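Write out a record, fold above all:
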Amino acid sequence: MSENVVIVGGGIGGLALALALSARGHRASVLERSAEFAELGAGIQLAPNGLHALARLGLATAVRPIATPMDELRFMDGVTGAHVVSMPLTDTYQRRFGSPYAVVHRGHLYGLLLDACRNSPDVELRAASPVTGYTKDTTGATAVLASGERITGTLLVGADGIHSAIREQLVGDGEPRVSGITVYRAIIPIEEVPLALRSAAVTWWAGPKCHFVHYPIGGGRFLNLAASSDDGVTEAFAGVPATTERVRQEFQRLPAARHLLDLGREWRAWVLVDREPVDVWCDERVTLLGDAAHPMLHYAAQGACQALEDAVLLAELVDRGPAGLVEYQERRRDRTAAIQRISRESIRLWHPEGAAAQARNRMLAAMTAEQLHDEVAWMHEERIGVAR
């Protein structure tokens, strides 16, 4: 039976769900609060599980020109400059996980999904449609817009991000948790990066209460920079301009990475926020997806991947109505909660100092490539409904 699904939120997760539903013969109405469908941000890392999900959306061929495969995940000591360890991402890794590990520009991935939705006769895209809540009965669910307009479908999915109005009504857990960490982001043309510093790697520089990551995006035309400081910030903000002087001062603790940090300009700052995992994110004919369901810090590089996994599974189950939504929740809950937790716990890997940092370096340096692959297998393999 064809379902008419109302999707609140036109981000990556919402568009992926709309596309997945249309491919299975369902109709989707996507309600986006902004005046136009657009995605802010810079780089996204796509582990094999995310690329497998895109393949199941029919985008395997389309994503190749915008995705840059990485050769390794490289861990550096940002104080001493020592290369601690690298996880190879080429032959053995790709055979094991059935895919490369790639990076993309967020806007390029979003544009790919948006174009696919626009080309589908079963997807309705409505911008300037902020939703404040929902109602439901035994036959359907209705999005209530700020204007008072109501849009009804047989099912409703809140894909409206970490500040989800649908989650607020369904779960009611208040404001997101402020992590106490500020991340500074910038993008620079690759021509401005010395040849010796260019590589097909995601590189982390770890230091006391801070770390810095960079990798190429946009088909190698740009270098994405993201520097995190555990500065104890208590109030959230997003996309605030930050001066070059501010960034340089904040990351004096990473002297070995200064040569790359100094290349950044037009920095913007965000305070990282997330939420506690919850057991229930379904309300009969209403459910949540992506950051609305399980927002996580970006340190496991799985936020977009998990939203894509959500979309693939949910689209397979919606024709079962409320029972399908419950199954979706049960199959996704443990996996996404585990990644929420590991994303928080990984801060202990990035931010120690002194003897603790030295012990971490020794532990990582002793690991073989196979052991490193084993550590990430539960995330990077195609395991939509399996936690670990």
